[in-house]
Amino acid sequence: MGAVLNLFKRPAYKGGVEIHGPVRPLSEPITTLAPTDEVVIPLLQHIGAPAKPVVAPGDEVRIGSVIGEPTAFVSTYIHASVAGRVKEITTIRRPGGATIPAVVIETAADQQAEPTGEATDWRELSPEEIRDRVRKAGIVGMGGAGFPTHIKLAPPPDKPIDSVLVNACECEPYLSADSRLVIENPTELVAGLRVAMRAVGAQKGYLAFEADRLDSIQAVRAVIKDASDIEVVVLPSKYPQGSEKHLIKSVLGRTVPLGALPSAVGALVQNVATLIAVFRAVTYGEPVTRRVVTVNGGAVSKPANYLVPIGVPIQALLEASGWREDECVRVVLGGPMMGRTASALSEVVTKTTSGVLALTAAEIGSLETSPCIRCGRCLTACPMGLYPGYIADAGVAGALDAAEKAGALACLECGSCAYSCPGKRPLVQQIREIKFKLQQRQRERKGE
Amino acid sequence: MGALVQGPGPHIGSPELTRTIMWSVIIALIPASLAGVYFFGLTALVVLATTSAAAVVTEYLWLKYVRGYEPRPDGSALLTGLLLGLTLPPTFSPVLAALGSVVAIILGKQVYGGLGNNPFNPALVGRTFLLISFPVAMTTWQAPLDAVTTATPLSLLKAGEQLPSWGQLFIGNIGGSIGETSVLALLVGAAFLLWKGYIDWRIPAGVLISSAVLGAGFGVPVSVTLFSGGLILGAFFMATDYVTSPVTPAGRWLFGVGIGIITVVIRQLGGYPEGVSFAILLMNAAVPLIERATWPKPMGAVK
To answer: Phi-psi region for residue A158, left (φ > 0), alpha (ψ -120 to 50) or beta?
Structure first.
């Protein structure tokens, strides 16, 4: 279906790959998952500084009680996702080795939420009030980046934002949490978009979809009707259509300069789940305590979208979906292209967990690497216009200058190159290593 | 069990592997091979079998005893051997044919470090070695469906004699190398590779357009330029070799156009009746320059 529809949509950017993933759990309604007996809520689920715990063992909390407060400008609030008693403040290891504080809560039988006041009409709130409510609700980019949303909603005064884009592409295969949210909450999404437009002073809002998300498109069109401030844009189903830069290029025709933020071209991109959270925070004062997670992959018998309390271990989600452990060779958090492998089944759902994938050997495919045959697939697949194979070679050879000149730092790590490579070279990993070295060198040079 | 195995993303990949592509090209050469055997008989089959087997064995022995590891067959040596065989005369000596494969694999490929590292098309290195070392054997042509010797269309052209018809050229009912004569069979295989996306259309398009135009400028009919002398075999199956052609899309155009021009220049002005092999090898040498000139520019690069 997507391929046929693509014929009518001219891609606005070169590169990218068409991935024919498995069926997404898109037609089934979102299922609410009950909390586990114990939840572990990390105090760092965002980019920036960890929150500091403001509860002690023994404290009683309700759903939505503040348990962590920001410690720096780039940081945010963390809330209890269940009602219960704080068991301990512990530390957990993050991938990469750093440890972060986490609050362990024993779930009570009676799940009470913090009382919320009267519903507020967001039209009566100033941009400052909107940002303050978003900050208090602990909202971060829920697409995976986790950048605190209240900061994104405060653009620098010299870079006015004229357009807010909703990234409803969900271009990673396997995932459908956002697409399902659009179908079930189109009114809240459209209102959330208008809240964001008000916060940054933008006149125009866009909802960008991949062409095959017909139900989602229909749902928002029914809400928008003939309003002129918001436009629905239908884009080709091509990975990585949901990349911020490529979305802006496709929707607005503007190119974000290398090294610059979208605000440089007057654009702000927000994720579907984030904007729904913004609407609920601004209207009801509701913090982020749950999110929708797609559980999918060949090693689960019931792929589904779950509404899950933050802090629930991924094991609970996998078991709810009929996980076949013996067939599963990799558990991935996030999408299959940019997600990372889980290090333990006790890893928990955070504000940025879009998916939990249980993949089989057949899905992962061959891991056998063979030499580069210069087929050029990585070059044609790269949405940033790079030659990934060359950059990776330069990296392996330690040729930092050559890699930098070839644009290594522009790499999004989207994985289109490695996906396409017939030699199954670990291109993303190799480029990530050279990027790390280049960034380190830049810091050293600045320090001198 | 192994659910918590760590690994870098992406966690899924395209099912196309190097060996899938190599084997697809081999399959795409089957029609041309069959046509060659049909027109020229069992001796052609002997040549093809010899070059293929010799290439595979040479590569296996080299990797195992010189490089010192157990080779994983990827189809590339078989492809080189088959391609070399298709460029040889149907009655060519099997011993010399095998020698050509040894040269193709060792001097054309392995001395540079093996798969992916050779600057020149290995099959053409082998063919050129044979052409220069054994010029008479390499230019003794058999008439199709007959055991008498004949001339190729291009040598007839050079001698100013009567040329075969358009239809004969297309079907392959003419003198020439085993795999170069049947345009129809070659195009069937080429269409398969284009459909699979395993070869880039830009390279053959560049070769065909430039050679047809320049050939016409010299007064050669377009059908003779395109359908004779291995141009189709070279344009679709040899110039498109990934390892020895540019990776950039614009570079592939330049590469193809260069091959077309050099081919016609050799045919019209050079001492040899045929120039496709030399044209491809010369453009192989130009690949690094072409890539430098057509290097991609990152999206959003600040000028």
So the answer is: alpha
Would residue B216 count as lying in a domain?
yes
- Give chain B's domain count: 1
Contacts of B209 (CB under 8 A, 6+ apart): B257, B260
B301 and chain A: CB distance < 8 Å anywhere? yes
Instruction: Among A366, A371, A429, select the one facing B8 at the smallest CB separation.
Output: A429
Report the residue of chain B nearest A363, measured CA to CA: B12
Work out the minimum CA distance from B123 to partner chain A, whole angstroms: 16
Angle at which helices A177-184 and A214-224 cross, to 10°: 40
Note every long-range contact of A220-224, with CB atoms under 8 Å and residues 24 or more positions apart, other chains counting: A220/A168, A220/A182, A220/A186, A220/A189, A220/A190, A222/A186, A223/A186, A223/A187, A223/A189, A223/A190, A224/A190
Residue A270, helix vs strand vs coil? strand
Residue of A nearest to B71 (CA): A370
B303/A contact by beta carbon, under 8 A: no
Q: What percent of chain A has pLDDT over 70?
A: 97
At residue B88 the predicted structure's pLDDT band, cuts being 50, 70 and 90, is very high
* DSSP 8-state symbol, B289: H
How many angstroms separate the CA atoms of A389 and A391, rounded?
6
pLDDT at B1: 46
In a domain, B148, yes or no: yes
Nearest to B5 among A256, A329, A345 (CB): A329
Give yes or no for B3 touching A (CB within 8 A): yes
Q: What is the pTM assigned to this prediction?
A: 0.92
Specify the CATH class of A2-27+118-284 in words: alpha beta
Instruction: State pLDDT tens for residues B159-187.
Output: 777 777 878 888 877 888 999 888 999 99
Out of 2.40.128, 2.40.50, 3.40.50, 1.10.30, the CATH code matching A33-109 is: 2.40.50
Residues A360 and A444: their CA atoms lie apart, in Å, by 43
Q: Band the pLDDT of B298: cuts 50, 70, 90.
A: very high
